[in-house]
Amino acid sequence: MRQLNFNTGFISSTEQSVEIHQVQTFLAVLNYGSFHRAAEALRVSQPAVSGRIRALEDSLGVKLFNRGIGAPILSEAGQAFRPQAEELLRVAAQARQAVHELQPSSGGALRVAAALSICTYFLPEVMQTYREVHPHVMVNLRSGNSQKVLGMVLEGETDIGLVRSVNHQEIETKMLRDDPLILVGHPAHPNCRKRHAKLEEVRSWPLIFYDRGSSDWTFSQGQFRREGWLPNTVLEVETIESAKKMVERKLGFAFLPLIALADELRNGKLRAIEITDAEPLHRSLDVIHLRSRPLSTNAREFMKVLERAAAVIVPSGKKRFLHPARHSG
Prior knowledge:
disordered N terminus, single chain
């Protein structure tokens, strides 16, 4: 006889026990809305997903899903099992972490993935501070665009991800600070004599865009296209740094992340222009990690360094930006 004790969350059976990978598969089917998408996310075949669900149902002695056409629908037993399944995975993750942190080591390891702009303009100082306090922790740092970093977090390939304006149902997201796109030009350019301009004026200025197809490219181009205008694009380059160097050579203006402009705005090498009749191009610098996996001690300490670094005031022309971190899901 099989029994599911919903008070304690323990699952017992005289014939067969419930396995962690079966519970993970059950929750993946719910999160992704189908057996097929769950199989893709878990990198197994769809028959393997179906087999795990059948084995789980056999172990519990109940049907977890009402089979039919369309997205899987939880049965009454499935609805009752879901919170127990989520708790079981949390406890398993905490157990693994507790055992891992007891293992003797020189200080452990920390895996971090970050968007390229964050790696270039934000993390060097953060890493210096962290290494001074935790010299024995080996940090593995990888980079990619924000969607690639999200994928690394979801696949468990990294402990912490640093991205710009990303959310997902399986991750915990904490906003560190605003990182808006700022229109900048060289102070010697005639159009920089004034600090304000209308969008219609700006569309005729020589404009430089970077990373075609990226969210930044779409965001900055979109403000013109919504008005039915095509911006006067004189250059398209691959990276933020390339665009910034072109602006410094007086070749045009560019919408660049504030995080990439701190030094140039502070020392007057570039000047920010406020567009008075358009919505600001808000973006955020976020830190993300899996909801289902508690952060290690090393990761929690790294988060503290990130938060302190993100609280530094960044100049933008006559303005100074400091936005406290807040939580979002």
